[in-house]
Write a structure and sequence with these properties.
four-stranded parallel β-sheet; alpha/beta; globular; Rossmann fold; 292 residues; 43% helix; 13 helices; Glutathione S-transferase Yfyf (Class Pi), Chain A, domain 2
Length: 292
């Protein structure tokens, strides 16, 4: 039986982080997931939350209302978007007056938010909805010998009170998925450290310092690479790696890949279809080979 979700791409994935979308669209259908492209989705509003919380709630509620209109649950691969939509539902369910106010604003587009959507991220979709056993059944080229560090990111884990894809203190779902692919996840003390992305707009040097420090720690521990599941985190670790190295006075040379890219390689999908040539970090060092 297929699992059917509206794909909520967010802002960063379709405008910059193309490899994430490519690898998602290549891998998930093989696991029985049908992704539906829905017209009308907009920004989740999370980047504006510190400036205008009402605007963030309205934008998230608008997207939820569109999914509701199509009778679809939502697959949200961006951790920041996932947090915004989940938090919005939490607020509206707990605050009827705010729900009424937001619906008054949505009425201009003939939209309404009345019921919760089931919202999944890449991590809980793979681990909880699809399951480790089914992932194992699709592995054609086990990632044997690949020792890699997992980066969860802040938005996937906190605040746990509203429900997040994994445990805030000891997340293990990415590691379980990596083991299913034949790779060896490596523990490192900096596992829960932030990538720095939330500081990028106002405090770029502080943001890049956070990025550089985490990558430097992974490099010093001689871990082969880093796997992530968020376009904002990937933007920092992959696209901004050179600049982050300059900020912390270190020459960084750490391969950074999306979890869905590793999934695709293990499934025997060509690296071109998975967008590995779009990664700006030295992913060739991992010697990943998909189907020819």
């Amino acid at each position: 039986m297929k699992k059917k979700y509206a794909l909520f791409p967010g802002c960063l994935m379709p405008t910059e982080q193309y490899a994430y979308e490519l690898s998602i669209r290549e891998t998930l259908p093989l696991l029985g997931v049908e992704l539906v492209d829905v017209e009308g989705f907009s920004c989740c509003g999370e980047p504006m939350k510190s400036v205008n919380q009402l605007l963030t709630l309205y934008l998230s509620a608008r997207n939820l209302a569109i999914a509701q209109k199509h009778h679809l649950d939502m697959f949200v691969p961006c951790a920041m978007c996932h947090l915004a939509l989940t938090e919005c539902q939490h607020v509206l369910e707990k605050n009827p007056a705010m729900k009424e106010r937001i619906n008054g604003m949505l009425a201009a587009e003939d939209l309404t938010y009345t019921e919760k959507r089931h919202i999944v991220h890449t991590v809980d979709l793979l681990h909880d909805e699809i399951g480790i056993q089914k992932i194992k059944e699709h592995v054609k080229k086990p990632l044997q010998g690949l020792k890699i560090a997992a980066h969860y990111g802040c938005h996937i884990l906190r605040p746990r009170e509203i429900g997040r894809p994994d445990d805030s203190e000891n997340p293990q779902k990415i590691e379980a998925i990596l083991k299913a692919l034949g790779a060896e996840p490596v523990y490192y003390p900096q596992k829960l450290d932030c990538c720095g992305a939330p500081l990028l707009a106002n405090l770029p040097e502080s943001a890049l310092t956070k990025t550089g420090q985490k990558l430097q720690a992974i490099q010093e521990q001689q871990i082969q690479g880093l796997v992530d599941v968020c376009p904002w985190c990937h933007k920092m670790f992959d696209s901004r790696q050179t600049k982050a190295g300059e900020t912390v006075a270190a020459k960084l040379d750490v391969p950074v890949v999306y979890l869905t890219q590793l999934l695709g390689v293990a499934f025997g999908i060509s690296t071109e279809k998975l967008g590995l040539e779009l990664n700006l970090s030295p992913v060739e060092k991992l010697q990943l080979e998909g189907a020819k």
